[in-house]
Structures are given as structure tokens and as C-alpha cells.
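Honest question from a wet-lab person: if I give you the sequences of every part of a complex, can you actually get the arrangement of the whole thing, not just the pieces? Trying it with mine:
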Amino acid sequence: MDSALGAPEFERVFAEFAPYVLRVLPRMGVAASDVEDVAQDVFMTVHRALPSFENRSTVRTWVYGICIRVAGNYRQRAHRRREQLMAAPEERAAQVETRTPARELEAQRTLAALDEALGRLSDVQRAVFVLHEIEQLPVSEIAEALECPKFTVYARLYAARQSVKARLARIGEVADE
Amino acid sequence: MSKQAPAPGIDMASAIEHARAAIGTAGQVDSLKVKLAAGLATHSGGATSMSTHAGTGAASTQTRTLVSLGKACVFSAALGAAGTVAWFATHEGDSAAAPRATSPATVAPVTSEPPAAALQPPAAPPASSDAPIDDAPAASHPPSRPSAARARLAKPAAASRTSRTPRGDSPANAPPAPASEVELISRAQGLVDSQPSAALAALREHEVAYPSGMLREEREVLRIDAEWALGSRDSALAHARAFLLRYPHSTQARRFETLLSDHKNELDTTPTE
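Yes, you can. This is the full assembly:
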């Protein structure tokens, strides 16, 4: 597995990043039932483009950038069926629900609420929030991945945090009434 | 209903923690491997534009390896072994064994170049990439929580049974639709300890709106908990029995088996406390 070539090996990239690709895609609005397909698209793209990868960014940044773009394209394609997308959080939670204890269900519901809050953000805000807060990429890397100035990242991050926080609080109130 | 207990409002930091923990599981990664292997086999073997950059010998090797990977995954799944890392190892299989391809053509037009920006040395694995794939799901998938569940069941509470009408507590921008499955079950979950009767109302609302909803198993779990909390032990035990018949493999099964076992006499003799 460590047989290093000059360029990163596809298998190694897959092994290293697949769990994170699978983590980031749902937060980027990919419905649970589509995550595997979209992740496949991501890695097909990685596979295709890896030979031309020139180390101008880290592999991580590069892969996340692909994730964001593929997820964005997915969302655009799915825009016409917006209703189904709106139902994605429940669908996702429900799919995992069948074999989960209650404590895990709570996590699933929290994630569903988070997804709902994320769904209210602009694409850029969402990407910035997800990459920074969940994937824990530094702002500089996010700026690279999204190909935008760092200032934009900071601004979008601030706005996204405010929006998500407010929305989550509201969902909590609803659940408590 | 009074709002004495502070709202378990969803804390953003907590939500983020949950999201961070939701790393793809070994099973998901394996499944993706199988699909990817099939997709790559399709694209390398047939006429496709996908191989524009990948038509090199090295890429072909990658494809072949992944195809065999898929095969290995199928075998490993069949054997019940989840050998995630062993997938590169040996199998130089034929592509005939590759699983069916699934819509690889949906690859979106994505910039194939790395983002041009400030040069950075290639380093820094993912934030938590040191977590082995196989271990990743462990943190977010605890096997069960018998103690907490038992604690809840052991806490009868008196509360008036008040029906709630369905409410469209939808977000400002959402369509004025009835509460979603997740909302109703979340509401019930949030109320089951403090206001079990209100939790039951939410569960009834869920049952009416989503009789065959995807969260029905959880609805039944919460119903049993809420009834127990209300002191409706006979009903709770009856529902627990029904639950076990319907969901014998549920992760909650053991908990309810224990409950029924502990209260067998009560069930047989005194229906209500």
C-alpha cells in the first residue's frame, strides 16, 4: 500500500479519502440514496484526473474541491425535483434508522436538523461551513478548494454560522413545544 | 404544555460533532469500492470518454486492481469479513467478476485540474485521517445503551394525557406542510422524559401522518418508553411484546426482552401497576 509512485496512487487516495468523501457528501445536500453514486462520480473524476495532478494543492484540498463541485452539479441536476431534495434529511435518517438504537437516532436527528439548516445556505456558504466546521479544513485550503479569496471564505463562514445556529435553535424550540 | 425543562435546542457545536463523527463506515467504503470497480471496469473496457486521462498503463493497472478489489469485497462480504485494507493486495482477477456498473455516466463536468492557487506542500492528511477506516464508525455507532434506556423506563411520571393537534411547525421558508417524520419523532424524543403524554401525542401524529414511515420502528420504541413513563405499564409491556415480534433483530430487542423478563409476573398478574 505504501509502494509510492511519483503521483499519489489512486488506491491510496481512495483508501485515505473515501470515508471523508462519504462524510462530506451528505452534508453537501446529497440524498442518502444517492451518496454512493455521487461518491463514485467523485472517485471516477479523481481517477481520471489524478495522472494530471500536479501537487499545486494538497491531495486533500483537491479531493474536497472535487467533492464540492460534484455535489454542486448533483444539486443542480436535482434542482427540478426540489421536493425530493427537501425530503433528503428524513430519507437519510430513515435509512440508517432501521438498525439503530435510540441514542444513535438522536445523532441522526441532529444530523437531519443540521442538513436542514445547511439546506438554507447558499452553495458557497454551505461549502465553506462544511469544509471548515465539519471537515476542519483551514480557511486557506478552503479558498483553494473553492477557488475564491480567503476574505470570501471568512465572510461566508460568518454568515453561514449565524444562519445555521439560528436555524438549529429554532428546530430545537419546535421539538420542545 | 409548560416549558419548564429548558429546550433541548440543537446546539451547533453538538451538531457539528455528530457530523464529524459521521465518517463513512467500512461497510460503506467497501460498497463504494465495489461500485467504483465496476464503473472503472466499464469505462476502461468499453468505449468511453472517461479514459481520456486514465488511458495509461498505470491507470489500467489501477482499474484492474479496483476490479479485483470489487471482487475481493464481494467475497469478503459473502464471508462476513470486512477486510477493508486488504483490497489492494493480491487478486489480479478478471473483469468478468466485476459487479454491475451503476450509472457511471452521471459524472458531472468537473474541473480536472487541481485548483490553481498558492503552492502548498502536499502533506496534511485529512483532519482525522489517522482514524483507521474500520474504527471510524465505532465512535458514532455505540452498540446500545441499555443503562440509559433502562433508566428512562424506570422513571414513571404522572402527566395529563393531552392530545395535540398536528401543527405545521415548519421553518419559515419551508412549504406549509405537516411536520416531517423527523420533526415528529424528534419532538417525541425530546418530550418522552419530561412530558410523556405530549410525546405520545406526537407519536400518534406520526402514526397518522406516516403509518408506514421509515421511522416507525423508532416510533414504537418511543411509544413504549412514553407509556412506561406515564405508568401505563400494561400497554407498554404489550407494545414491547409486539415490538419484539415485529422487530426481533432490533438493537432495542434486548432491552425490551429484559423489560418483559423483569416484569413477567406483573404482566401475567396485574396488568396495571
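Two things worth pointing out. Chain A touches chain B through 103 residues (CB under 8 Å). The mean pLDDT of chain A is 82.
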